[in-house]
Design a protein that fits this description.
nine-stranded mixed beta sheet, 6 helices, 25% helix
């Protein structure tokens, strides 16, 4: 039995097909569910290994990117999602999905630490390829220090903390999963390698459990050398990094899949 992904759909999502293709290419089966259908049948979560929130502009990003969907999930599905996570499920969200997870408080998931994603420092939508360096807290998904090239496409991707000094708290808690990197593979806050001005170049977070993961760029848009801006010539990797990332997320559930009989 393949790992099972339950993928959310709501008004304004536009990256669901790309993310579905990434999960399927990595070895999972995907069931799409509209937010209203899931509210009526939250037990659908019980049959899933991964809950996936795609990118896009949910509800037009009115009141702030991801805020309305975050409130909708918290109000109607908060208890079901908590039970799903506590029973071993993974929750994943790129771009708008990451904004939802942060505004729900699931990321960074540290009591007393308030984080958000706000307007890029350029005050405009940024659409460009970026490099992400894997930090130790995400070492169960890909090797620490490896680079994950992924396109960024967002206007509200600047990671901020209500109290910037809480950055040390995040570091000590081990929840900083990815940082933006330059062509030399070094973490950076310099534009355009860091397209939004995020605090300390933070591009993604992982919960203390290791099973809630979110990031601003789109790894689902890098699944082969043909997707790369240089078609795999070397400056942007070889096109295997995205699939490896999704396989890493699925690894605990792939391990539970029975081997085919001879």
């Amino acid at each position: 039995m393949k790992p099972r992904v339950l993928q959310l759909f709501a008004a304004g999502m536009n990256c669901d097909r790309e993310l579905r293709f990434a999960w399927e290419s990595a070895g999972a089966t995907v069931q799409d569910v509209h937010i209203h259908a899931l509210i009526k049948s939250p037990e659908l979560l019980q049959n899933a290994d991964v809950f996936s929130i795609p990118g896009g502009f949910t509800y037009g990003d009115d009141l702030g990117a991801g805020r309305i969907l975050a409130l909708e999930i918290l109000t109607h599905l908060g208890a079901a999602l908590e039970s799903f996570h506590e029973s071993g499920g993974t929750i994943f969200g790129p771009c708008n999905g990451f904004q939802v997870l942060v505004k729900m408080g699931l990321l960074p998931g540290i009591p007393g630490v308030k984080a958000s994603l706000t307007w890029n420092q350029t005050h405009r939508f940024e659409c460009r390829w970026t490099r992400l360096i894997l930090e130790k807290p995400l070492g169960h998904v890909l090797p620490v220090g490896s680079l994950l090239p992924a396109p960024s496409a967002h206007a509200e991707g600047q990671f901020v903390l209500e109290h910037p000094e809480d950055l040390k708290v995040l570091e000590e808690a081990g929840v900083i999963a990815l940082r933006y990197a330059n062509a030399q593979g070094q973490a950076t806050t310099a534009y355009p390698d860091c397209p939004n001005g995020s605090l300390d170049g933070i591009a993604g977070l992982v919960s203390p459990s290791g099973r809630i993961v979110g990031l601003m760029p789109h790894p689902e848009r890098n699944l082969s050398a043909d997707h790369l801006p240089d078609r795999g010539a070397g400056d942007w990797g070889d096109g295997t990094e995205g699939i490896a990332f999704f396989r890493g997320l699925l690894a605990p559930y792939l391990a539970q899949t029975p081997a085919p009989s001879a």
